[in-house]
């Protein structure tokens, strides 16, 4: 009988005839258990709300960081701002046609916006030079994909983005930089961005 009662959902069991003192003690014990369960439930709800608030704060900080990086790029080279926006727009249109999922699209969007972030480390005199670059200057310019990866990689949310940024000047035939990747060694997102980047460079005045 006792086992059946507990299996049916009873929290406790007392047999007849029962002692009133024992009954009161059991009731007080059950009330304490209920109070503890209620407090734990409330604490769990508060924890979920705190976690949600923390995630929202982190996301807000993350977005602010991205905006700061983009602003830093803009300050170095006026051309880059419009170029990055156009590359982002074109790259996303291509990726959507290729049925990229939401995460892949978001990574591509961030990588496209930040693909020239490594140019922060390049002197403005070189970035804005109207004449042809010297061999030394061009070598320095070619460092910006790797520098961009170094800037972004420490941020956990941008690890995949940093890989795309590093590879956006690789070429299908292996003549690109910095790693001379070729064919399928190059991430698909980086190939798309390279196409959008090259197209915009050829069709825009600087």
Automatic annotation (TrEMBL):
CDD domains listed in its UniProt record: HDc
Location of the Response regulatory domain: 1-31
Biological process per Gene Ontology, one example term: phosphorelay signal transduction system
Coiled coil: none
PROSITE patterns, sorted: HD, HD_GYP, RESPONSE_REGULATORY
Domain HD: 80-202
Segments crossing the lipid bilayer: none
InterPro entries in the cross-refs: CheY-like_superfamily, HD/PDEase_dom, HD_domain, HD_GYP_dom, HDIG_dom, Sig_transdc_resp-reg_receiver
Domain HD-GYP: 58-206
The protein's name: HD-GYP domain-containing protein
Gene source species: marine sediment metagenome
Native organism taxonomy: unclassified sequences, metagenomes, ecological metagenomes
